[in-house]
Design a protein that fits this description.
about 15% strand, alpha+beta, flat, two-stranded parallel ribbon
Length: about 80
């Protein structure tokens, strides 16, 4: 992922809802940095969960619930 082009401008220029799910104990990504990044955009929602980098494997039911809630919210946006 570190070789990807910087697309942060999309966070500011797009109007559709976006969701970040971050693991509080992630040893790969800096959760605080990601949270700060979300402050610079439109319609960005941030959820921190008590997992490492692989939250979808560590807590799949919790991830599903977060995604369902986000989709429900986005439909009525």
């Amino acid at each position: 992922m570190s070789i990807r082009k910087d697309r942060k401008f999309l966070l500011k220029t797009t109007q559709f809802p976006k969701l970040y799910i971050a693991g509080l104990y992630d040893m790969v990504l800096d959760v605080k940095k990601i949270y700060e990044e979300t402050k610079n955009g439109n319609q960005i929602y941030f959820v921190a969960i008590p997992t490492g980098h692989m939250g979808h494997i560590e807590k799949p039911k919790e991830i599903i619930k977060i995604l369902e809630n986000f989709i429900d919210f986005s439909i009525f946006y």
